[in-house]
Amino acid sequence: MRDHYDVIVAGGAAAGLSAALILGRSRRSVLVVDAGEPRNAPAEGAHNYLGREGAPPTELYRIGRDEVAAYGVEVVAGRIVATSTIDGDGPDPVGFSVTLDSGAVVTARRLVVASGAVDVLPEVPGLAEQWGRGVVHCPFCHGWEVRDQRIGVLVTTPNGAHHALMFRALSDDVTAFVTDPALVDDTALAGLTARGIRIVTGPVARVLSSGDVLRGVELGSGDVVELDALAAASTVEARVGFLSGLGLVAEDQLMGDVRFGSALQVDAVGQTSVRGVYAAGNVASPMATVIASAAAGTQAGAAVHGDLVQADLAAALAGAGTGAGAGAGAGAGRDSA
Length: 337
Ligand SMILES: Cc1cc2nc3c(=O)[nH]c(=O)nc-3n(C[C@H](O)[C@H](O)[C@H](O)COP(=O)(O)OP(=O)(O)OC[C@H]3O[C@@H](n4cnc5c(N)ncnc54)[C@H](O)[C@@H]3O)c2cc1C
Description:
The protein has seven helices and 19 strands. The chain has 337 residues and is of the alpha/beta class.
């Protein structure tokens, strides 16, 4: 690891490695720091990734690490714990300093944040142990795998009825566990009934498993409902704590009136509110799939390269004494990407 790079990428999964790939191919010096906890790690396969449909996430990212290494990108295992700007004479930072959990301090001209998100799960005993296997959240990620099975849907927000309808498209045998009657209005209830979804109202006491296999749920009444799979919604919280030194915080994400997570605000190419800091993937878009996160990483990487090209031009013009290139800071290429 050197002391200084063109770009440091925080996070080395779909978004981060894709940003690194396009930057490496553009001959930028790139350091990827990865804490090794991709959001889909519990899942056996990553689905809807064209060309690698169903590949285990660990395999997908191992291939990605090999691919970026071929272009000189350095990938280190570790966690960025702090970040700060390096200020110049202009209004925009000229670079960024990051501190790793090893204590190492590394600087770069630009930063790509691809640190993903954490799923905060409903607090039902036994649920977390099955997350990503017997307990699923996404009909697109896991729906095919649970097709025609006995599926329960844990309704914990007003969006839960829609969640149940999504899974009903995959199986005739769907039960909605409405944990609080206030969450489902009469129209939604009528819709669930019209689609043949059983409705069980009241608390779910715990998720039952036999060994590694989900068996069903135990209700507050003590009754047991046998299931093959349980769908449950998480709250998807952006991993941004290490960005506080830059003044970057995640904002609430709403679906209707319901808060479903948090994310960094970015523009169409991933630029955050701090010039020179870009973000891609779930940290900026909690609903993005693996391939969408990879695409956002590519977009952000391309924008960073364009930004640096303009900054280099500004510096060259200033050095040539034209005066036209004053300021090679992070905003120098702001219109270029
Ligand atoms: C159980 C489950 C199954 C899923 N299945 C699918 C599926 O089949 N198909 C699909 O398209 N989508 C699926 N998804 C969604 C998928 O997980 C996301 O689309 C994807 O993980 C987003 O990629 P990312 O690169 O933005 O973030 P992540 O995959 O979360 O990667 C972020 C990386 O950054 C690292 N990191 C975090 N903070 C730091 C830090 N401070 N310093 C250094 N590194 C850091 C993390 O350790 C991690 O390695 C699934 C989600 C879940 C929860």
